Amino acid sequence: MQTCLARQVALSRGWQWVDIDPFGSPIPFLDSVMQSLARKAVLEVTATDVAALTGSSPAPLMRRYGARARLDEIAHDTGLRILLASVARCAARHDKVIEPLISTWDSHHLRVSVRVRKSLDSASIVEQNLGWRIANPSDVEAGENAGHGHILVPLDTIVDKTDKRISGPLWTGQIGDAEVMASMTEERALELCGPTEEICDDESELRLRRRAIARSVRHLAEESSAIHSGNLVVVDSLASRLQLPAPPSPTKLAEALVALGHCAAVAAYGKPAIRTDAPWDSILSALKSV
Questions:
Q1: Is 265 within 8 Å of 220 (Cβ atoms)?
Q2: Chain-centre distance of CA 180, in angstroms?
Q3: Of 102, 136, 171, which marks where a domain is finished?
Q4: CB of 30 closer than 8 Å to CB of 11
Q5: What are the backbone dihedrals phi and psi of residue 9, each rounded to the nearest 5 degrees, phi first?
Q6: Total domain count, the chain
Q7: CATH number, domain at 92?
Q8: What is the domain extent for residue 256?
Q9: pLDDT in tens, 133-155
Q10: Is the peptide bond before 247 cis (omega within 30 degrees of 0)?
Q11: Can you give the C-alpha Rg of the chain in angstroms?
């Protein structure tokens, strides 16, 4: 009944900004909402079925999203990309295309914000931004990305779908817009959304609320400089993989890579990580200096 009512409301007019935030999967609402959007609009989609999207519950993942995911240290990034792929495919069915603005993981949910616009030509080539993620790729599979623990490859790449290293189909393009992310500073978030003493007279509660708001956008602005890269490197996995005595500091590792001439930034991810376009050899070189 609630789904039917939501569809009726969604189809009532051309909306310019819609936020889908259901309990569980947003899939039942996507088509109706996509039909309801104006020619140019912003769509925000939240999924709380994180266990499915990250591969912990593979059967619901296949039923709802038609995908598979490897449960590893970047499973939540994989989940965000699977969610984006579902939104992109839905948009294409309605002759529309998406442009990701922000993609975030916050404990119990995954959330993506996308710009949606009408474009027959772009909708027809949606598969150019879809593909697969391969964990622990061979040098042949990785090519110029040899050494990295994960790679993204185009949808037309021949993969063995029974291979446990394979995740997808998923979104392989940028998962955020650099300009939008750069504007999401902690200071700006507190200015726009932070509670004041007029609203909350309990000093301890006020600090907690402001801290929660700041935490929700932490590293988004910083990551904007490297959001074009699909390489997400969790520093804890570096320590175990390279047998380091301790995980390197994400901040120092990113700074060392920038000094080598690469784009790198601390990632807005639920685990200490960096996003970078640096080749594996440069990461190894940077590790020696941190």
A1: no
A2: 14
A3: 171
A4: no
A5: -65, -45
A6: 2
A7: 3.40.50.150
A8: 180-290
A9: 999 999 999 998 999 999 999 99
A10: no
A11: 20
